Amino acid sequence: MYMRRNTRSVKVGNLEIGENAPISVQSMTNTDTKDISATVSQIKRMEREGCELVRVAVPDSESCHSLPLIKKEINIPLVADIHYDYKLALKSIECGVDGLRINPGNIGNDEKIKLVIKSAKKINLPIRFGINSGSLDKNILKKYKKATPQALVESTVNVIKILDELNYHNIIFSIKSTDIINTIEANNIFSSKYDYPLHLGITEAGPPFQGIIKSSVGIGALLFQGIGDTIRVSLTGDPVEEIKVGYEILKALRLRQRGPNLISCPTCGRCKVDLNKIVKKVERQICNINKPLTIAVMGCMVNGPGEAREADIGVAFDKDKGVLFKKGKIIAKSNDKMIIKRLLEEIKNT
Questions:
Q1: 3-state helix, strand, coil in the chain (%, to 5)
Q2: Listed residues 213, 235, 252: the one ending a domain
Q3: How many whole angstroms separate alpha carbon 84 and alpha carbon 174?
Q4: E-assigned strand segments in 118-204
Q5: Which tens digits make up the pLDDT trace of 105-132?
Q6: Hey, which bits of 203-293 come out as E strands?
Q7: pLDDT tens-digit series, residues 221-266
Q8: What is the sign, positive or negative, of the torsion defined by CA atoms of 242, 246, 247, 252?
Q9: Where are the alpha helices (DSSP H) in 123-179?
Q10: Helix (H) or strand (E) holding 236
């Protein structure tokens, strides 16, 4: 039985993360932050797909100057992603971002981290501390020899000690590894001891095919255990695709529903139509529909109204004929082309 882990609430801009808030889907731009037009354009596309928070890279001071201009043009919270130079974090705060993402493994010593936290505390700005297997503190790596789950958690605990000292807890953590098992184990250990909200992901997951599988397994396994408050699917490519996959993971676990759930059979020797072509056509036609419908496209009557009776609406084929059904009940019969047309009409009218 699914039971969400109880975490504290952190607000990033107008987005609540943790506690009873829906698990949010976020992503990161891959444009040059100094190219304001390109960055805003990409974020707008991400917003249309349902992105609820966006992170931008801040590698230099020039990028900091772009932040208020970007924020002015978008509708979702803007988070500055900082590595190596703590001064960029301080400057980003001055430039009005909604939050920071800091990697404590490469930002410098504890004093630099404290300076960032103190600056954020003045305006209650949320910070996500990203603990990554590829950038752990050298002392921790020396102790554990490699990026084990225990090493990842210890790095997180070191940050919490600083937060306790400064009495600031408007914080989100992410504990990521390129290794799925290590990511799952580290997040399990952490969530059993602390109530900070967790951002989930598999770092550097890879190109779309491999990345989607790794992310679905890793993120999905944790979400199913009630762990996780916000997610990002990391893929090499267009970040818009990351958001689509993120919502599909949440949809598969019945945690959130955005747009139709399209189901189709894998086909077998009984299928007498080009189901792949039909499914692609239906997929194109429903891509802009946000109704929470389950739509079935089945290759034969065996996988038709009976096995897909849970679908709100669907079609199944028998040689050159097709049937349209709702909740397992056949409501129309026709040739394959007409039945697809009828399906699309019914979807729009449902």
A1: 40, 20, 40
A2: 252
A3: 18
A4: 127-132, 171-176, 198-200
A5: 888 789 999 999 999 999 999 999 999 8
A6: 230-231, 261-264
A7: 999 999 999 999 999 999 999 999 999 999 999 999 888 888 888 8
A8: positive
A9: 138-144, 149-166
A10: none
Residues 6+ apart with CB under 8 A from 233: 27, 201, 205, 211, 212, 215, 219, 242, 243, 245, 246, 249
According to DSSP, the β-strands at 15-17 and 10-12 are antiparallel
Tokens of 200: 């989930």
| CATH number for the domain harbouring residue 175 | 3.20.20.20
pTM of the model: 0.89
In a domain, 184, yes or no: yes
Domain extent for 102: 10-252
208-224 vs 239-252: helix crossing angle, rounded to 10: 40
One-letter amino acid of 314: G
Tokens of 330: 């056949």
- Do 130 and 151 belong together in one domain? yes
Residues ≥6 apart with Cβ < 8 Å to 121: 166, 168, 170
Closest CA to 173 of 185, 150, 155: 155
